[in-house]
Amino acid sequence: MPARVETYRADVVIPCYQEQDALPLTAPDILSYFRKLQVSPKNSMSSFRLLLIDDGSKDKTWDIIEKISRNNHEVIGIKLSRNYGHQMAMLSGLSHSSADIIITMDADLQDDIQAVEQMLAAYESGSHLALGVREDRTSDSPAKRWTANTFYRVLSLLGVNIIENHADFRLMSRRSLDALLDHSEVNLFLRGLIPAIGFPVTLIPYTRKVRVAGETKYTIKKMLHLALDGVTSFSVAPLRVIAALGGIIFTLSILSGLYVIVERVFFPQNTIPGWASTVFPLLLLSGMQIFSVGVVGEYVGKIYMEVKKRPRFIVEEITPPNIDGNTRH
Ligand code: UDP
Ligand code: MG
């Protein structure tokens, strides 16, 4: 991993939904922290911008963003037409960025902003991704911890590679962001995609704090939505389960179909007229149907993966380096 020596520009992307209580408290802290970083000799960050994304808030969030932007030349506000959800709001900020590094964080400063310094150090020593990992979740409610743990367990069971306790507090290099934006699928599940990009990664542990103001914007409905997105955008395992279930039921129905025939032929005194001719086709057909749905599901799964048009691979390096100029951005 070669260390980086050049100076770089940073964009900080912050999705904001109904954050009228938190933003006036957190934005000044974020600004002053990055202003300090900018002049600090400990890193080579030359300038920064704050991209505040209003994710269709119905409260005064946008007015606050406009005001902050008027008073601070580093701040750019982007207002989305409606509430698209945290992930899409973040993506809109990422798509608007032209910086060399991009940092994403929440508006409520639950993530320890001091960890950004370590993220910059990781970037300067060659990492393309520096991912904040919550070390301690005691500030979250027991219900939130339980749902989060279950979420990670289900995802790993389904074979989705996700970094545990990493939410959306991270630094990305231009290169890794470009690779991410090459994924043209509409339903981007960033937490799953980002580890899948590859490139050198550093995990930065930090302690998660309590929200400074306002309530959590992740309602149960939004959390379920996120979990479902995580499962369905990376795994066709649920379809496989149907196929397997269909296979099992089909086998059972053949066995019980045989039993019906044996009963009918050898022990006719046990059966009533019409029983075999009704039950046998019923068992066979229902088994076949579920199995067929499973087979169709397999193809649907393949189509689903195809239509995403994900890049099939991402090149990290070519040697000699400027063979076609593609490895530099
Ligand atoms: N958020 C968003 N759109 C939404 C929900 C949340 O942009 O539909 C933002 C929110 O303003 C915050 C971040 O996503 O900056 C994380 O949300 P929150 O802090 O409420 O979630 P929690 O930390 O409780 O999981
Ligand atoms: Mg929060």
CATH C-level class of the largest domain: Alpha Beta
Give the full name of the CATH homologous superfamily of the largest domain.
Answer: Spore Coat Polysaccharide Biosynthesis Protein SpsA, Chain A
List bound small molecules: uridine-5'-diphosphate, magnesium ion
Rounded mean pLDDT score? 87
Main beta sheet:
7 strands, mixed
- Classify the oligomer: single chain
CATH topology of the largest domain: Spore Coat Polysaccharide Biosynthesis Protein SpsA, Chain A
Q: Indicate the radius of gyration in whole angstroms.
A: 26 Å
Strand content: 5-15%
Number of strands: 7
**How many structural domains are formed by the residues?**
2
Q: Can you walk me through this structure?
A:
Its main location: membrane. It comes from Asaia siamensis. Helix content is 48%, strand content 14%. The protein is an alpha/beta fold and 329 residues long. The protein has two domains: 8-234 and 310-318, Spore Coat Polysaccharide Biosynthesis Protein SpsA, Chain A, CATH 3.90.550.10; 237-307. A seven-stranded mixed sheet has the order 3-2-1-4-6-5-7. Helix 1 (23-39) links the parallel strand 1 and strand 2. It is elongated and about 95 Å long. The two termini are 17 Å apart. The mean pLDDT is 87. It binds uridine-5'-diphosphate and magnesium ion.
